[in-house]
Amino acid sequence: MTKYCLFAVALVSVAFWTGCAKGLGSTPSVTVSTNPPNQSVVGANQTLQFVATVTGTSNTAVNWSLAGTACTGSGNPCGTILASGLYTAPATLTGSSLNVTVKATSQADSSGQGQMSIRVLPIKVFVTPGPTVSVGQGLTQQFTAVATPDNVAQTFTWTCMQGSVACANFVQDSTTSGLAVYTAAESPCSGCITVTATSTVNPSSPPVDSAKVSVVSSRIPASTYALRFSGYDNAGHPVEIAGSVTFRADGTIASGVEDVKINGVYHQYTTVSGLFAPSTAGDNSTNNAGILTLSASGAPTYIYSAVLDSAGNLRMIESDANGTGSGSMEKSTSGQFNTAAQRFVFGLTGVDSSGNRVGYAGVLPLDGNGNITGGLGDGNDGGSSVCAVPPCSLTGTYQIVGGVWTMQLLLGSQALSLDFFVGSGQTTANTKNPLTLHAISKGANDLGLSGRMVFQDPAITYDQTALNADSVSHLTGVNSTGTGTLVSLVAATGLSNGSISETFDANNAGTIVPAATTSSTCTYTTDANKTGRYVVTMLGTGSTCTSGLPFVLYASGANRGFLLDQSSTAVMTGAMDPQTGVGTFAPSELPGTYAAGTVSNATSGVIPLVANLLLTSPGNQKYNVQGTQYPGPVAVTGTYTLMVTGTGTIVLTAPAANYVIYTTDTSHFEMIDVDTSVTNAAVIFAQQ
Q: Residue 98's domain spans which residues?
């Protein structure tokens, strides 16, 4: 679902403008505020109560007035304000928004004035999931509606129609009108159901939004998916899995190939079978949860608990008796990987042959003829670089063998042998969804190594301008003793002068490092050849980024790429993603159903999870979280917050947990556990 920047909460920087007394003596001073406090936006045709506080005189009465560039003409284009300070916004706007200055003038002395700037916005409704969604026949789907700005009444009426016929199994929540549940009793059909939420605000011209629903035999369509999994077996040995499976329309697997590496021993299985079956949790999220079973002759049978996003991609965790771990599956756009010359950047993480954590990152120029020349890469093996003077040169070959793409790399003196499987995305310039390849190591020089390769956007000039915007990075490593994990989320704004302003939250094996109240100014350098390789200092403290750690970043696009710490024994790896909406994020923009799941397992002590999280905004500035978490099912309840910067919290009362969240946009966020009892935390992704 796409939402727009709506300035739906008060912007603190403009919340209070105070009139200063002129002259000396008893000239009154006037301060203007709102009730409830800290409101700087209002919806069209809505009211907002202003309050004037007068000091310096016994006469506290004021005269109210409105001002602004658009406040001329007939019909009260800026709205009206009563003697009581009750402001009513205009019913219609000539543009996308309207700026109004509300003034209070002391009746005792007209030189005593105070004022406050507000913004009038059109009221909009957003239905999630949407604008399109698939619902499995016989399954249920939770729908959420929110109205913006935040102070608009969150009350709605719902309809569900198949043409001119009302849906037989559609129920609006009796306590929270922004929720409704549809059960797909209709026969399979494409886009045949329309679910609509109508705001009760402004009955003469009510804001509405709709979602088109397709009823399908299975939430996993007849399509090919790429998968990647990382975890540990019951003996604590690393397990890496990657592959490709093709589903039939009923959710059974028609064919597939599965690469499995357990404690350094690699096998490829070419007769994969199994199925995806919907969950029986009965939690109004059964359309978005299920059990995936993968079997192959001679291989362990793996069973996963999975949650689905609106596009039908999966986050999954192992739920059998073989071990623990997490992974993902996504629809393959295999035609996007072809014989044309293309450049990819990669990030690989795992365990070397001695059991030390290892990470690699680099850029792969593929010439279209099976050769890789002129590449660059970096590696950190337990705190030591894999080449004498980073970056390492990188060469190699790639080809397709038996329907599987293979790659042989020489990174400095380090040989890597990989299989890779084509995931989703595009290989076009300026794409926001670059093609992803899922890679797994076949070589004997590691116990387990896997990761991703992402198409590098050719339209970007990889100099300082490519980092000159906002981003969110997630980082995972091990603590100094190797007994826990070190995870962090970083919000940064890059500047074209080679500096980057950042704040971060971290959990270092149960030691919580909360975000500083002021940002650190760190530095970065670029590769003179503009290959996409940067060295970025991160995780520093104080205004000058004291004790910051150098990371190498291989960029796949603007403010996007793979991160690897160059020298610490933590071997922190992760990725940077662009962030949009900084300064305008609002908690009312997040409601919807999210597929959330652990994405990294730096130690065998990590307890991975997946969850369907339902975020709701029932009004009165309340923001709730509910849903179902696996292993389980376990019911989830709690609340969330979100600041205009895009950072916030999720506090769960059941199961008890505290998270910080960093949003990349209004449909995606990342989170880490900040409880001191959690010494093996991991990064969790959430996506609508």
A: 12-121
Q: How far is CA 142 from CA 146, 206, 208, 290, 310, in A?
A: 14, 23, 18, 16, 12
- Residue 376, beta-bridge partner list: 363, 393
Give which of 496, 474, 494 is closest to 485, Cα–Cα.
Answer: 474
Looking at the structure of the chain, the number of domains it has is 5
Instruction: Determine which helix (DSSP H) or strand (DSSP E) holds 143, and give its type and residue range.
Output: strand 140-148
pLDDT > 90? residue 609: yes
> What tokens appear for 209 in the block?
């939004």
**Residue that terminates a domain, selected from 181, 200, 216:** 216
111 is a domain residue: yes
Angle (nearest 5°) at CA 40 between 55 and 661: 125
| Residue 334, pLDDT score | 86
| pLDDT per position as a tens digit, 489-547 | 999 999 878 899 999 999 999 999 999 999 999 999 999 999 999 999 999 999 999 99
Angstrom distance (rounded) from CA 122 to CA 15: 20
**DSSP 8-state assignment for residue 25:** T
Q: Can you name the residues that pair with 159 across neighbouring β-strands?
A: 196
The DSSP annotation for 227-268 comes to EEEEEEETTS-EEEEEEEEEE-TTSBEEEEEEEEEETTEEEE
Indicate if 191 and 244 belong to the same structural domain.
no
Last residue of a domain, one of 399, 422, 455: 455
- Assign residue 98 the CATH number of its domain: 2.60.40.60
Residue 377 within a domain: yes
pTM of the model: 0.87
Span 35-63, pLDDT tens digits: 888 788 888 888 999 999 999 999 999 99
Residues 321 and 239 in one domain: yes
Position 4 confidence tier, pLDDT thresholds 50, 70, 90: very low
d(CA 379, CA 359): 6
Identify whether 533 is part of a domain: no
Do 211 and 300 sit in the same domain of this protein?
no
Distance, in Å, from the CA atom of 385 to the CA atom of 389, rounded to the nearest integer, reads 8
Same domain assignment for residues 106 and 36: yes
Three-state DSSP class for residue 286: helix
Q: What angle do CA 619, 588, 114 make, to 5 degrees?
A: 80
Nearest to 330 by CA among 464, 485, 438: 438
- Please check whether residues 247 and 233 belong to one and the same domain: yes
Question: How far is Cα of residue 271 from the mean position of the Cα atoms in its chain?
Answer: 35
Claim to verify: residue 338 and residue 327 sit in the same structural domain: no
Mean pLDDT, rounded, of the chain: 91
Rounded to whole angstroms, what are the CA distances from 462 to 348, 363, 493?
Answer: 22, 12, 16
Let me know whether 286 and 371 are in one domain.
no
Q: Bin 644: left if φ > 0, else alpha if -120 < ψ < 50, else beta.
A: alpha
CATH of the domain at 251: 2.40.128
